[in-house]
Design a protein that fits this description.
Layout (H helix, E strand, L loop, with lengths): L18 E5 L15 H6 L1 H7 L3 E4 L27 H13 L3 E6 L9 H8 L5 H4 L3 E2 L22 E3 L5 E3 L14 H16 L4 E4 L40 H12 L7 E4 L8 H4 L6 E3 L3 H4 L4 H18 L4 E3 L8 H4 L10 H9 L10 H17 L3 E5 L20 H5 L43 H4 L6 H15 L6 E2 L7 E5 L5 E5 L10 E6 L12 E7 L2
Parallel strand pairs: 1-2, 1-11, 2-3, 3-7, 7-8, 8-9, 10-11
Antiparallel strand pairs: 4-6, 5-6, 12-13, 13-14, 14-16, 15-16
Helix pairs in contact: 6-7, 13-16
Bound molecules: alpha-D-glucopyranose.
Length: 556
C-alpha cells in the first residue's frame, strides 16, 4: 500500500480533487477508555487513514462543549475539550497526518456559540442594550408583558427560535437553546473569528469546514419578517437572496474577509461551506474570492435512479465549470441516515432519498421493511461511481465499513437534541454517530477499553476493521482499492458520457480513457472490452449485474 506523501499534496490546489474523510472525533477511537473518542485515539489510527488512501481529514468539532449538539455548541473556539485531549495532542495529530501527506480541515461553527461561551455568560450578566448583548441577537418580546417571542421563527430542533432570559428579553437560537446565534453585523464578532482562523492556520491547519455557512447574515430589522412558506423541497420560497435568515447576499462580505486571511498563508488555506442552498446559489460560496468550496448535497438527496444521478452530475459539473470551481460530492455525513440504509428503504416516488429516510426515523408508524443487502450493494455502487467523478469527494467515517444506521438506540441513551426537542418523535442523528468497530469483539469492538458513549449493536463485530481488513470482498477493501486507483488515474476535471448511457446505465470516460459503468437496472449488462480494475460487487459471467459499478481500462 502506497503511503508516501501524495503528489497533489504539494500543490496549492490540492483540494480540487481531494478525497476528504470526515472524523466525528467523539466516536472514532478512544485512547483512554472513558467511552469518548479523543485526539490521541485518532493519532493511533493515522496509519489506518494513510492505508485507506485519503487526501485529507475533516475533524468535526473537538472544542470544549457541553455536547448539547454533539460539539456544535462551542464553548471556546481556540481550545480542545479536556475529555478529548490538549492543544499539544492536536499538534501531534496534525504532524502525524502531515507526515503521511494528509491535510487537516477543522470545523468552524460561526453561526452560534454555546450558551457556556464567555461572551454569552457576559451577555446574560449585562443589561439590555449593552455591548455584550449586541454580540448576540437579543430582542424584547411581543404582546402584553412582552411574554411572546419576538417573532414566530422556529428552531431547527423544534420549538421557537427564541428563549427568554431573566430580565425578560429574548435571544435568538436557530438551533438548540444552548446555541445562541451570533450577530454578524457586529465588528467585534467578525474580528474574533478572523483571529480564530489565524489561530488554527498558524498551527498548520490546511482548511476549514464552515458550519451553517448560509445562515450568518440575517435581516434583523424591526419588525422581524415572518418566514416565507416552502411548499416542496425543490422550491425556494422567495427570490434568491431575500429570505430573512438564509442565504442572504451579504453573507459573502464575511467570506471575502475570510479569504484575505486564507491568502495570507502559503499555500492559501481553504474553506468548504456547509450551505443548504439552491444549487444555482452554491457557486457564490465556492468562488475563489469566497470560501473556495461548498458541499453539494444533491447526490445525498437523490434516489437510486440513473436519470437522477445523470441530471445531477451533468448540471453540477457544468455549474462548477462555468464558475471555475471544483464540485464536491457527498453521500453520507454526521447529520444524515447512512447511505447503505437510505438505499435499503423502499423508495417513494414523492420523496427524495433523504426526506424518505428522515420520515422513516420519525418513527410515527410501522417501520418499513429494510432490504439491508440491497442497501449495501447500492451504497457500494454509488460510492464507486462517486469516486470516479471529477471534483472532490467527502467520505464519512464508517461508510468504508459498509455500516448501516443504528436505529435501536434505547431512548435513555439518545443524545441528539433533535430527539429530545421533538418529544421523542424524531430519533435524531445518533444512529450514524455510533462509535466505530475496530475489532470483532471486546468491550466496545476495539473502539476503546470501556463501553462506548453510544451503544454499539452486535452486528458491528463482523463489520469491524479487523474482520474486513484481509477480506478481498469487503467494503473496506473496495474503498482502499478504489482510492488507490483514483490516485493513479487522476486526471483533468472532466468526463465524457459514453453511448452506453441510458435510463438504466451510466457509463462515462475520464481523461486517460478509463471508464466507470454503473448498472441501475435489474438485468446484467455488458462492460466495455478491457481490464476491469475494481467492481463494487462480483460480475456475473463477465456481465455487470444490477446495482453494481465497475471501473474499466479499455483495451487499446
Ligand atoms: C450543522 C451541523 C449539525 C449541527 C448544526 C448546528 O448542520 O452539521 O450537526 O447540528 O449545524 O450547528
Amino acid at each position: 500500500m502506497e503511503m508516501s506523501p501524495r503528489p497533489a499534496a504539494a500543490s496549492a490546489e490540492w483540494w480540487r480533487q481531494a478525497v476528504v474523510y470526515q472524523i466525528y472525533p467523539r466516536s472514532f477511537a478512544d485512547s483512554d477508555g472513558d467511552g469518548l473518542g479523543d485526539l490521541r485515539g485518532i493519532v493511533s489510527r493515522v496509519p489506518y487513514l494513510a492505508a485507506l488512501g485519503i487526501d485529507a481529514v475533516w475533524l468535526s468539532p473537538f472544542y470544549p462543549s457541553a455536547l448539547a449538539d454533539g460539539g456544535y455548541d462551542v464553548d471556546d473556539y481556540r481550545d480542545v475539550d479536556p475529555r478529548l485531549g490538549t492543544l499539544a495532542d492536536f499538534d501531534e495529530l496534525t504532524s502525524a497526518l502531515h507526515g503521511y501527506g494528509i491535510r487537516v480541515i477543522v470545523d468552524i461553527v460561526p453561526n452560534h456559540t454555546s450558551n457556556r461561551h464567555a461572551w454569552f455568560l457576559e451577555a446574560l450578566a449585562a443589561p439590555k442594550g449593552s455591548r455584550a448583548r449586541d454580540r448576540y441577537v437579543f430582542r424584547d418580546g411581543r404582546g402584553p408583558a412582552r411574554a411572546e417571542p419576538p417573532s414566530d421563527w422556529p428552531a431547527a430542533f423544534g420549538g421557537p427560535a427564541w428563549t427568554r432570559v431573566g430580565d425578560g428579553q429574548w435571544y435568538l437560537h436557530l438551533f438548540a437553546a444552548e446555541q445562541p446565534d451570533l450577530n454578524w453585523a457586529n465588528r467585534e464578532v467578525r474580528d474574533d473569528f478572523l483571529a480564530t482562523l489565524r489561530f488554527w492556520a498558524d498551527r498548520g491547519v490546511d482548511g476549514f469546514r464552515v458550519d451553517v455557512a448560509h445562515g450568518l447574515a440575517k435581516n434583523l430589522a424591526e419588525p422581524l419578517e415572518p418566514l416565507p412558506v416552502k411548499r416542496h423541497p425543490a422550491d425556494w420560497p422567495v427570490p434568491h437572496g431575500t429570505h430573512p435568515l438564509w442565504d442572504r447576499d451579504e453573507v459573502h462580505d464575511i467570506y471575502a474577509e475570510w479569504r484575505q486571511v486564507f491568502n495570507e498563508y502559503d499555500p492559501p488555506r481553504i474553506g468548504v461551506a456547509e450551505a443548504w442552498v439552491h444549487p444555482s446559489r452554491r457557486p457564490r460560496y465556492a468562488s475563489a474570492s469566497g470560501l473556495g468550496q461548498a458541499f453539494n448535497f444533491d447526490l445525498l438527496e437523490a434516489n437510486w435512479k440513473a436519470g437522477e444521478f445523470l441530471r445531477i452530475i451533468t448540471d453540477d459539473l457544468a455549474d462548477a465549470q462555468r464558475h471555475g470551481a471544483s464540485t464536491t460530492w457527498v453521500l453520507s455525513n454526521h447529520d444524515v441516515v447512512r447511505h447503505a440504509s437510505r438505499y435499503a428503504l423502499p423508495a417513494r416516488d414523492d420523496r427524495d432519498s433523504l426526506t424518505n429516510a428522515k420520515a422513516w426515523l420519525l418513527g410515527n408508524g410501522t417501520a418499513p421493511e429494510l432490504d439491508r443487502g440491497r442497501g449495501l450493494r447500492r451504497a457500494r455502487a454509488a460510492t464507486l461511481l462517486m469516486l470516479a467523478l471529477p471534483g472532490s469527494a467527502y467520505l464519512y467515517q464508517g461508510e468504508e465499513l459498509g455500516l448501516h444506521e443504528v436505529t435501536d438506540i434505547p431512548a435513555e441513551r439518545i443524545q441528539d437534541p433533535a430527539y429530545l426537542r421533538s418529544g421523542g418523535a424524531d430519533k435524531g442523528r445518533d444512529g450514524c454517530r455510533v462509535p466505530l468497530p475496530w475489532a470483532t469483539d471486546g468491550p466496545s469492538f476495539g473502539f476503546g477499553a470501556g463501553a462506548a458513549h453510544l451503544p454499539q449493536p452486535a452486528w458491528f463485530g463482523p463489520l469491524s476493521v479487523e474482520a474486513q481488513e484481509h477480506d478481498h470482498a469487503s467494503t473496506l477493501t473496495l474503498y482502499r482499492q478504489a482510492l488507490g486507483w483514483r490516485r493513479t488515474l487522476q486526471g483533468a476535471e472532466s468526463l465524457e458520457w459514453m453511448p452506453g448511457t441510458n435510463g438504466q446505465v451510466l457509463d462515462f470516460r475520464r481523461p486517460g480513457g478509463w471508464r466507470s459503468v454503473t448498472n441501475f437496472g435489474s438485468r446484467p449488462v455488458p462492460l466495455p472490452h478491457g481490464t476491469v480494475i475494481v467492481t463494487s460487487g462480483p460480475l456475473e459471467e463477465g456481465l455487470l449485474p444490477a446495482d453494481t459499478t465497475a471501473w474499466v481500462i479499455p483495451a487499446s
